[in-house]
Amino acid sequence: MEPLTTLGVSLGLGLLIGLQRERTDNRLGGIRTFPIVSLFGTLCAWLAQAYGGWVVAAGLVAVFGIGAVHNALVARQPESDHGQTTEVAALLTFALGACLVAVDPTLSIVGAGVLVILLHLKEPMHLFVAKMGRQDMTAIMQLVVISLIVLPLLPDRAYGPYQVLNPFDIWRMVVLIVSISLAGYIVYKFVDPKAGTLLGGLLGGLISSTATTVSYARRARAALQGADLAILAILAASSVAFVRVMIEISVVAPGHTGALLPPIAAMLCCMILVTSAACFRPRPAQNDIPSPSNPAELKTALIFAAIYALVLFAIAAVKNHFGETALYGVALISGLTDMDAITLSVSRMVSEGRLGSGEGWRLILTASLSNLVFKGLVAGFLGGYRLGLRLALYFGLALAGGLAILWLWPASGVAG
Q1: Of 172, 207, 285, 400, which one is least surrounded by beta carbons within 10 A?
Q2: pLDDT classification of 414: cutoffs 50, 70, 90
Q3: Maximum Cα interatomic distance, the chain, rounded to a whole number of Å
Q4: Domain residue ranges of the chain, discontinuous segments joined by +
Q5: How much is the average pLDDT of 49-53?
Q6: What is the 3-state secondary structure (H, E, C) of the chain?
């Protein structure tokens, strides 16, 4: 980057950060001070090329000293309630200006963007922390244990007769599923419990569509207020479950999304149409959204790891002994209670070249249709025959759409 261009970028980054700081009550610096700090960092980095790295260190100490003196003066004022955000932002602005010369301009630009966003999101971030209770923090800490402590300790090698049981890979899928579920769980914390049944179903589908089905079916029977609310929530959750499947496919088999995602997206469209039809029926007053359980429980993670490993082994064994056609039996069985395990297993095999993408999406879709049947039966058993009969109509339409996709989807669209 040319020197004048570098100075221009440094000035722009400082102005961007200073603009945000100008809107706060902190008087250490604003729209003039931060560009100066950024330019100071850039000039120090240039001087360091001729005189050594101590120039940058001395400049950083100087900026720190200015902030320290300012804090000392503010602390003497009565009833002062002064944070350290602006001072730290000034130090980072100096470092970003220096990185334009010493490291990589792209790093500085991205870093400045992240800094401005973090500074701007002060109130939402504080609100987020305020709404997180003990149970919610426990869920986040459990995700930390699962992803940052357990995962790195597992061996990254295949075991078993079919070389498909890799502890590291299995637990990595556990981290993925728990992360998706926990994201929905956290979003739930910011939603008014009286926000409505449709939103409750959408959030429930992101966490677990089967658990949402069980919850709303029980509430429909206990409240004696009819089946329409429960049907809407269950359909919404079942629709979002296909979004979840598409996310899992994109993460595990990114090179095959062109072949795997379109049929699943078509099934999602079918579910959206069916759910939309349910929205037009008159319903009783909205009831509260049921509280979801913590999706990051270690016991839940271990159970999913066992199911995922079992499905992986079953697919490899069945394919080896009976051929790919017999895999549909595995998909039907494994999809009854859980779509995640079969989706991840098939996507992984497609990604590794052990299974064609055409067979892959068909197995995933077959499992999803099996899951719809299972949820319909569970809802009818827990919520009563009225709920079961009405839900059977909607799920029947969705199943018809899914079977049509399996039968009519063009072969050219599944090659992979």
Answers
A1: 285
A2: very low
A3: 83
A4: 3-120, 131-413
A5: 85
A6: CCHHHHHHHHHHHHHHHHHHHHCCCCCCCCCCHHHHHHHHHHHHHHHHHHHCCHHHHHHHHHHHHHHHHHHHHHHCCCCCCCCCHHHHHHHHHHHHHHHHHHCCHHHHHHHHHHHHHHHHCHHHHHHHHHHCCHHHHHHHHHHHHHHHHHHHHCCCCCECCCCCECHHHHHHHHHHHHHHHHHHHHHHHCCCCCCCHHHHHHHHHHHHHHHHHHHHHHHHHHHCCCCHHHHHHHHHHHHHHHHHHHHHHHHHCHHHHHHHHHHHHHHHHHHHHHHHHHHCCCCCCCCCCCCCCCCCCHHHHHHHHHHHHHHHHHHHHHHHHHCHHHHHHHHHHHCCCCHHHHHHHHHHHHHCCCCCHHHHHHHHHHHHHHHHHHHHHHHHHHHCHHHHHHHHHHHHHHHHHHHHHHHHCCHHHCCC
165 strand-pairing partners = 159
CA angle 37–39–40, rounded 5-degree value: 60
Amino acid at 85: T
Closest to 33 measured CA to CA, from 104, 76, 71, 90:
90
Q: What is the pLDDT of residues 345-398, one digit of tens each?
A: 999 989 988 888 999 999 999 999 999 999 999 888 888 888 888 889 999 999
Q: Are 48 and 148 in contact (CB under 8 A)?
A: no
Residues 6+ apart with CB under 8 A from 79: none
